[in-house]
């Protein structure tokens, strides 16, 4: 049985947001019986954050926030007098493992009540909610599905790859960053809508990080972990915020703060003045560093500013912004397909102008869309996730933008996540090395990477996968120890 809740309106310059409390129901993987596969599409906007709080020990909190326009769902009269009208919504958040099977899921069902037909057609009311799961480290994909049970509509949002890193209890970490329209500290005893309260802050989230030129501020929420270390004598952690253009061009530092080490973690909420900023896509770079400068972490959070436009245009604009491919520079788009193109395609691409290259790449992805009947190119999303992963973990510079060009980057972007990994960081003799196993390529298929110079410069020295470097004497080679780069 659905429960109906009262609502409070929150007005922003871009949207009026309808706040509500949801009734969470037991997990289920089946879609509602009264919704068919041929339902009308419901536009939804969604994003996710991963909170790797060491207090969770071996799992992280995966939080999916979503929204949709109230005017897009159907209502029915709750009685013959038509004194109120109700919409019924079911939401499902499914997380899939590397084999495509559902690993875990969360769901909720709720009703939306209005008091007149006029309220039903109001255009600027937006519904917000979130679904959460505790997930162990690994590599996943996820799908959010929203059902309008009355109007027979269905909205879906697919996340190509969701990476849950192992919990660190020593490294300084920034976790769970997401954008918001507005934040306000209300305390843990707040009696209003508790589902929108996180660590004492009432947060009106912006799932896709989209704002209007009429909005004078943007807000961001994140958490800092492992602020203090055993025997740590430093007193604070410094955080700097910089604004970047969509191509990562530095605009300037926009804020900084010192966080005193009173506990081992901190909740950080910042609001930035963007009055007068031109429409466009921007990045906020957050760099956290302890006083000793021995521990740092850095993340990039994108957001967009758009001009006030019609709701239909807003939907199309949001769909475009949601696709991370649109946030990439031409150089990054070219890097993305380096290991996918044939030699002839690479030759053709190299000869084209910038406009020609963009058109070539757009056509390439259209031809290589595994699900052409959807608005999402899942193959491209998967490659972008891989590209971001290798740059984050395998880059040799502070910018973290060259991991794709390394041996590990090439193998990861070509074959995806390993099924198993052996990390031999302290061998009895010779250089450190790591072995990646890919069972889906065949029994015993592997790649061996050696720390070539002893400076985390891992290079491929052996693989038994067809077409890759094969060296049956790789173990003897590794035991020789560090070698000069030209060797």
Written description of the protein model:
With 487 residues, the protein is an alpha+beta fold. It is 16% helix and 41% strand. The chain is built from eight helices and 27 strands. The strands form five sheets. Strands 1, 4, 5, 8, 9, 10, 12 and 13 form an eight-stranded mixed beta sheet that branches. Helix 6 (378-394) packs antiparallel against helix 7 (407-415). The chain is globular, with a radius of gyration of 25 Å. The N and C termini lie far apart (71 Å). The model is unreliable at 1-30 and 310-321 (pLDDT under 50).
What is the element layout, followed by pairings?
Elements: E1 4-5, E2 8-11, E3 16-19, E4 23-24, E5 40-41, E6 45-51, E7 60-69, E8 76-77, E9 85-96, E10 102-114, H1 117-120, E11 125-135, E12 138-148, E13 153-164, E14 173-185, E15 197-198, E16 201-205, E17 210-212, E18 217-225, E19 236-245, E20 250-260, E21 265-273, E22 280-290, E23 296-306, H2 311-322, H3 330-336, H4 343-351, H5 354-367, H6 378-394, H7 407-415, E24 420-424, E25 433-437, E26 446-451, E27 458-463, H8 474-478
Parallel strand pairs: 1-10, 3-11, 5-13, 17-23
Antiparallel strand pairs: 2-3, 4-10, 6-7, 7-11, 8-9, 9-10, 9-12, 12-13, 14-16, 14-18, 15-16, 18-21, 19-20, 19-22, 22-23, 24-25, 25-26, 26-27
